[in-house]
Design a protein that fits this description.
By secondary structure, this protein is α/β, with parallel strands linked by helices. The chain has one domain: TIM Barrel. The protein has 10 helices and 12 strands. It has helices spanning 14-27, 51-61, 78-91, 108-112, 119-136, 173-182, 196-200, 223-234, 244-257, 272-281; strands at 2-6, 31-34, 65-68, 71-72, 98-101, 142-145, 150-154, 166-169, 185-188, 207-216, 240-242, 261-266. Strands 1, 2, 3, 4, 5, 8, 9, 10, 11 and 12 form a 10-stranded parallel beta sheet that branches. Strands 6-7 form a two-stranded antiparallel ribbon. The longest helix has 18 residues, at 119-136. It is globular. The termini are close together. The mean pLDDT is 96.
């Protein structure tokens, strides 16, 4: 099981994020995944950093992989994104992963005047984006005539230092088709977990992952107080809650079911002491 820290880049400074990400990596996490929005969902007035700038900063300041769950396709032209991804790939010496999707908060689109809110149009655009990006990563001349994107003898160099892992999330038929065609990692929405075995066959060779909110009750903590705080912040306690023994059992079951990576979103906003103890008492005991 590869544990990744899901850390929305909001309500904290970049220096604080750097500390928490490096603490997580030192504790056994493989890296970090950020979010990608034009305003924080359900917290629109809160301060938030740009997704690609934050990834660049963390890639330079920390070790471990850096990526997103997930970049919104409509926010960037594929030629811009292809260049950004390759630049981050080289800058991090292969530690960047391209997580991409067609947008989880369509209300952002009319608010900021970005893209089409229709699901079909967004999936069509993502399909073209993935085709264009992979073509540009070849370093060869690319001409492309699509509904959403058009390129004429376009060339981008350098190519990636090695194949850049692509992460795509979702469970719809067309999204799974893109997963099977393009993705190295398939992030299964947790509300579709009961359909995992059925959907897995449609994801091709992509390795399955899961994003999961977690409330970790540290050894010295008051359990009731920890749960109460999580409920106040999120309205529920998420899908994983417990002390070390309980979470070893929980994540071991996930691994046994075939989930190969978990993006952990801690309800205490990645408190460094939580990350360190979770690494020592949970991650270290899960194959």
């Amino acid at each position: 099981m590869d544990f990744q820290l899901f850390l929305p880049q909001m309500r904290m400074t970049l220096a604080t994020m750097t500390e928490r990400v490096q603490t997580a990596v030192d504790a056994g996490f493989g890296g970090v995944a950020l979010m990608d929005h034009l305003a924080p969902p359900m917290a629109e007035v809160q301060p938030m950093w740009d997704a690609m700038v934050a990834a660049t900063w963390l890639g330079a300041k920390t070790t471990g992989t850096v990526g997103h769950l997930v970049l919104c396709d409509s926010f960037r032209h594929p030629a811009v994104l292809a260049r950004q991804a390759v630049s981050l790939d080289h800058a991090t010496e292969g530690r960047f992963e391209l997580g991409i999707g067609w947008g989880s908060v369509p209300d952002e689109f009319p608010t900021f005047g970005v893209g089409d809110t229709a699901a079909k149009a967004r999936v069509d655009r993502l399909t073209e984006t993935l085709e264009v990006i992979q073509a540009l990563w070849s370093g060869e001349s690319v001409s492309y005539d699509g509904q959403h994107h058009s390129l004429v003898d376009a060339v981008q160099n350098p190519p990636p230092s090695a194949p850049i892992p692509i992460v795509i999330g979702g469970a719809g038929p067309r999204t799974l088709g893109l997963v099977a065609r393009f993705a190295d990692w398939w992030n299964l929405p947790i509300h579709k977990l009961d359909q995992f075995e059925e959907l897995r066959e449609k994801a091709g060779s992509a390795r399955p992952s899961l994003q999961e909110r977690m409330t970790f009750v540290r050894e010295s903590a008051n359990r009731d107080a920890v749960i109460e705080t999580a409920q106040r912040r999120f309205g529920d306690t998420g899908h994983a809650i417990g002390d070390a023994d309980e979470l070893i059992e929980h994540f071991s079951a996930r691994a046994e079911s075939g989930i190969e990576r978990t993006y952990v979103w801690t309800t205490d906003f990645a408190d460094p002491e939580t990350l360190q103890e979770f690494g020592e008492t949970v991650i270290a005991h899960i194959p």
